[in-house]
Amino acid sequence: MSEIAIPQQAGQSQADDRASFERLFGTDDDLLPLWIAEPYLPLAPSIVQALETRASAGWYGYEIRPEGVNRSFTSWMKHRHGWDLGGTELLVSPSLGTSIGVALELLTDPGDGVILQPPVFTDFKPLVTRSHRKVVRNSLVLDGTEYRMDLEGLDDVASRPDVKAMILCNPHNPVGRVWTPEELKTVAEICSHNDVFVISDEIHADIMLKDSQFTPFATAAHGTDVRWVALHGAIKTFGLAGVADTLIVTQDDEFTAGFLSTSSRLHLTRNNVFALTAIETAYEHGGSWLDAMLEQVARNVETLANDLPEPVRIIQPQGTYLAWIDFRGLGMDVPELSRWLPQQAHLALSPGHWFGREGAGFARMSIAVKSPVIDEAIQRLSAAIG
Ligand SMILES: Cc1ncc(COP(=O)(O)O)c(C=O)c1O
Q: Measured from the CB, is residue 296 less than 6 Å from ligand 1?
């Protein structure tokens, strides 16, 4: 294991402490932790160097956000994804969770329904229920080997009078779908027609595999009356979740006024000096590092597709560095699979049911890792299956 460079703390970052981690996965010291969505790779040298230089300045007081930070994001979006952000506003928020929480408060009332499309990122449901809103499910459909949105189902739930908002995951964590312009256009039309506000979580936008192309919801929404915001940031692309700072892209004046007022009331506006440095450097100089990571992830997908032991199989991701792995062929129920993965295969993965009941029988593996880590994970699975 020593040649496989995953930092000790990796995989524990969302468990508050060692005790929480052990509650999830047990006490095995030899667990391979691949459950958190972040790159487990040496990060871009340009970012590390810029942070070292910033740290050596010896001054970490209040800092005004330099215009270059948001400008670097705008330019990145234009050059990387062909998205012209002219005419939009960029709002700063400490995290996507904060943005979603505030958006739900501004756009909906307690008791209102919020559409989620499970299996979907684990934080969405508690963000909805803890603010006393209702989760309204429009489950994804697995057609053979690919997931799709149930657009008829979406039209049904969106037309309910209690439904006021939808959290769209674009691209989709955990199943790795990169939604097409046509799919997104239909979502925009349905939500426009039914007055449903779309919160489009686009944090995995940069993680495009092979020929996939990211479509911003904003582009799909063009020409409809749908109200929307899009959530972005460098945290996933460049492994910067620990330094925080994310962005909301919006053209919605009412939302902007509400967000700025909440942000000021709750003092969400403090700048992190290291985040400012890291983000600007990432967007200005991180492109080639990202390209190399994407190639590594694509290689890992191929290895998993070829070498996972029968009957385990990968659902091919089009985007994200997450592999959604189908263990249903093993015939285990949810508690059995949740125990088997850490205890028999010595892998800390995110069991599929964390993403909604639709994920039962699956597990999510983070695959922004070097090839030997994937080989090791496959070997552990093969040994456990026997
Ligand atoms: C789709 C998606 N949204 C949001 C987040 C988390 O964002 P934050 O930590 O800024 O709340 C993640 C983290 O994995 C994610 O995958």
A: no
